[in-house]
Design brief:
The structure is a single chain. Helix 1 crosses helix 12, helix 2 packs across helix 3 and helix 4 packs antiparallel against helix 8. Helices cover 43% and strands 21% of the residues. Strand 9, helix 10 and strand 10 form a beta-alpha-beta unit. By secondary structure, the chain is of the alpha/beta class.
Amino acid sequence: MNASFSQHRIKTCVGSIAVFEEGAGIPVVLWPSLFSDHRLYSHVVRLLGSGWRTIRIDGPGFGQSDPPQGEVQVDRYARAVFEVLDQLGIEKAFVAGCSWGGQIAAHCGVAASERVMGVLIMNSPLGASLGGHRFEVFGTRWFGSTAFWGKGVARSMFSEVSRAQRAERVREFVSAFSDFDRKAATTTARTVLTRFPGLESVLARLTVPTTILMGAEDRLYPVEKMRPLAELTPGARLEIIPSCGHLAPLEAPEAVAGALLELRTRARSL
């Protein structure tokens, strides 16, 4: 472990959030997807190397953060990101997120563009999720903290190539399920999967440097459905990652680290 690693619990508008900080340099907030915690970004952090101050989050409902305070929408989680930055004495940062985290990153870029150097959105459902996804919510409620449910979720999220060639990453993902509180995870999953109004208006107002990564094999949110929404973002860079499903930080961490490095270069040129 890096000698500069530290763990915090920071009080925010959505409760006490577990924050894992490492390195020194340009700050980047990393918010995970549903069914994962800060460990989702372990490989990305190692690949970024020196020059970055990584701030990994456990989203409420998963990991070591407090349970969600009811059905909280992503704009409120975006406020919590800035409260974390305030507590850490950080004025400006990059904000990156996978799936649920990507929705939050987009809201951060719009809510306080003067504090966001750039946004990285990965594998995110960009359109509205109003209803549907009953199977995922039901499964989380009854089996959410078990390896059985973790393996089922992994089958829907990882591409076939990732499951075959990076089986250890699938095991990493599944191992985190034993740490989740089933009731708390169900509340978050229900809100994100069945109450989300979409990002159309948010993407159109994103003026900070933005990169959107999509998995070529993402069965949950296929490229052909997400691309028209991604193209609403002014000047955004869109990258399709070959053989990647829904979890780029685990399936293609090299592409994620590369996207952050490119985003840093683009932000410096402004």
